[in-house]
Amino acid sequence: MGAMIVAIVETHDLTKVFNGRKAVDHLDLEIEEGEFFGLLGPNGAGKSTTVAMLSTILRPTRGTVKIAGYDIKRHAKEIRRLIGVVPQEFGLYDELTAAENLTYFGKLHGVEGGKLKGRIEELLRLVQLKDRANDRVKTFSGGMKHRLNLVTGLIHEPKLLFLDEPTTGLDPQARLAVWELIKRFQSEGVTILLTTHYMEEADYLCERVAIMDRGKVIALDSPARLKRSIGKLEVIDVKAGKVTKKALKELRKLKGVREAARTAGGLRVLTPAASEIIARVVTLASFAGVRIDSLNVTQPTLDDVFIKLTGKTLRD
Amino acid sequence: MKILTIAGKSLRIFFRDRMALFWTFAFPLLLITIFSLAFSGQESIDIKVLAVQQDNSPTAGAYLNALDNILTIERVEDVAEAKAQVLDGEVVAAIIIPPGFSSGEESASLVYDESRGELANTVVQIVDGITRGFFGLQTPLEVESVHGAYERWNPAQQYVPGFGIMMVLMVGGIAVSSRVINERKAGTFKRNLLAPIGKLSFSGGEILSGFLVGCMQVLVFFGAGVFVFGLDIAGNILLVALISALVILLGVGLGLLVSTFTRSQEAASGATQAFVFPASALAGLWFPIEVMPEFMQSVAKVFPTYHAMNAFQDVIVRGKGLLEIAPSLAFVAGFVLAFFGLGLLLFKWEA
User: Fold this and answer.
1) Contacts of A108 in chain B (CB under 8 A)
2) Count of CA atoms in the C-beta half-sphere (13 A) of A231
3) pTM of the model
4) Pairing with A210, which of A118, A187, B93, B150 sits 20 to 30 Å away (CA)?
5) B184–A contact, CB cutoff 8 A
6) Which residue range is the domain that position A279 belongs to?
7) A223 and A127, same structural domain?
8) Burial of B21 (0-12, 13-18, 19+ CB in 10 A)
9) How would DSSP label each residue in A103-150?
10) B351 is a domain residue
């Protein structure tokens, strides 16, 4: 008999309406214990609202949420003992030292005495802040605050950790360091729910990813399967000047183009045969007055999955 | 015990903020010092003596006119009223001329407040001297001393409770509202709400820390008042503590309320000042209410600060008891309940 899969997060018909607008729209989700799960989507997709409801601080308009079997409406306190949250903003007291911040939040979660002291030492060592334990947080660099913010959510050894855009604003090197740290948390048995709009982050870290747009989950699977789901498509990544709406419309009508979307630095075109349409893309762009700086053919990413499903990029 | 953890955290942050310490303790002490020194040379009392003239003979009239040459004689109708004013410390003495005074059947009586010390002795000597001069050795004057409620006017009686109330409200209002706003902005509020604690523990911890800071302020202000500026407290010191506690709660409640409709520290500070400054200037916290026009004196009564100041003055200056200051306390308590009720009702828990 195989091991029983236990869902630590279960939502059914979860909906949140703000001023008549559905921020989260009939969400059904199951996250298994020990899993690294990602909620991927552009800003405003409903990721943070979902996490706010799952973490008990926002009341759903409709639907149910169970965390480790506890209903959020009736057992919020029990759930808060089981979950840790790393908010996007630092959520630290600048005037307190690193150790004082951890002590305070540890005590609020009922961790006391020797156990708390030991846990603080362990966590500060983990994020290489042990020698700065007694320095006030206001003297820390952004990267140090990021690291302290991460482990503050772990002070009470939660079973389920919510990470809300944990690497926003970090340079690539610091981002990698945070990723390694997060992977370590999971290897210690913590279930992780990551919300991000960085597709590379979801691709690298998550075992399963739910792609959200306008409050709904539009795709849910492992990153590899999601990428495969768009078929044998290739991607033409065009670095270009301003791409007008008209040019994009014309491009989408081009034979062999499955989908096209503007990106921050140009556009991406999804096609079954890149080599056959490259010349046509360049010609069309030139007629439309789009200046092309470079052109690459690449393999699909999660961003391309999103483009195929919505016609937009994740950063739109 | 989570309340203590939360309060402890807020106090620790408070004591590390040098600017906050300056505005909380040093600035009010500076105000008290400046005003107390500026007005310390003043004696605000005229030698006013009340007279009840029940004998309308020319002799009695001439006698009072003789007294009026040196003292300021103010006539009142009623003996009981005259005595009450002496007892209340409003005048130093009253002289009563009974109906049988001019016929020699009755003597005049001088009722004076012995607690006025030198001033009272001076008045007795003046009245005695004029009476002897007027009637010869057989002075038809009986002298009766009472111990009135008057304590020698000391500017500290005005400025310690006056600026004390103002700064406790100011600091309570600004500190509590700013802390809530800062916690919301910094994300720590969210993190607190994510802990397995009740909302009551969180708000209770913040209220407790605000209350403790207020207690420290009151101790510092009254400590300086008593030990540096010679403030005498005629009444029960526990009543001073009780009024102080209500004023501190008023400040914390104000902060809670302000935090519900302001989104920045600047706005919170502005909203607090918009209440505290008029409530201080118009309610007799900066200078005695008696110097203000009558209309403004009635306007002052709508402010809880007026009633708090009144209660402080009743206890400190006039030595009154709990029952006598109860109406003032009830008025302040009503505002405390209103501020807390609205503050907690409108409080935005969702970060």
Assistant:
1) 2, 5-6, 192, 195-197
2) 9
3) 0.72
4) A187
5) no
6) 231-299
7) yes
8) middle
9) HHHHHHTT--HHHHHHHHHHHHHHTT-GGGTTSBGGGS-HHHHHHHHH
10) no
What's the CA gap between B310 and A190, in Å, rounded? 61
Q: Are residues A235 and A205 in the same domain?
A: no
Minimal CA–CA distance to B336: which of B248, B215, B276, B262? B248
CATH number of the domain enclosing B66: 3.40.1710.10
Residues B10 and B137 in one domain: no
Burial class (CB in 10 A: 0-12, 13-18, 19+), A287: exposed
Q: What is the CATH number of the domain that holds A269?
A: 3.30.70
User: Does residue A203 form part of some domain?
Assistant: yes
Taking a C-beta distance cutoff of 8 angstroms, is the pair A14, A29 a contact? yes
Cα–Cα dist A51/A57, whole Å: 9
Of B81, B112, B146, the residue at which a domain comes to its end is B146
Q: Which among B345, B165, B184 is positioned nearest to B262, based on CA atoms?
A: B184
In terms of Cα–Cα distance, which of A182, A198, A179, A211 is closest to A39? A211
| Straight-line distance from the first to the last Cα atom of chain B, in angstroms, rounded to the nearest whole number | 24
Residues A152 and A248 in one domain: no
Q: Do B129 and B164 fall within a single domain? A: no
Domain count, chain A: 2
What's the CA dihedral at B99, B103, B106, B112 to 10 degrees? 70
Q: Which residues pair with A161 in a beta bridge?
A: A84, A192
Cα–Cα distance for residue pair B273/B30, rounded to 1 Å? 19
Q: Which of A137, A187, A140, A197 is nearest to A167 (CA)?
A: A197
Q: Domain span at residue B54?
A: 48-146
Q: Are strands A266-271 and B48-53 parallel, antiparallel or unpaired?
A: unpaired
**Domain contains A306:** no
B227 and B177 within one domain: yes
Q: Which residues of B touch A78 (CB under 8 A)?
A: 196
pLDDT in tens, chain A (316 residues): 445 657 899 999 999 999 889 999 999 999 999 999 999 888 888 998 999 999 998 899 999 999 999 999 999 989 999 999 998 888 899 999 999 999 999 999 999 999 999 999 999 998 889 999 999 999 998 888 988 998 999 999 999 999 988 888 778 888 888 888 888 888 888 999 999 888 888 889 999 999 999 999 999 999 988 888 877 788 888 888 888 888 888 888 888 888 888 888 888 888 888 888 888 888 888 888 888 888 888 888 888 888 888 877 766 5
**H or E element that contains A79:** helix A76-82
Residues 6+ apart with CB under 8 A from B44: B153
Closest CA of chain B from A3, distance in Å = 31
The CA distance from B323 to the nearest CA of chain A, in Å, is 43
- Per the structure, how many domains does chain B have? 2
Q: Which of A56, A79, A108 to mutate to test the interface with B (most CBs of B within 10 A)?
A: A108
- Could you say which residues from 13 to 52 on chain B have a Cβ atom under 8 Å away from some Cβ of chain A? 13, 16-17
In a domain, B112, yes or no: yes
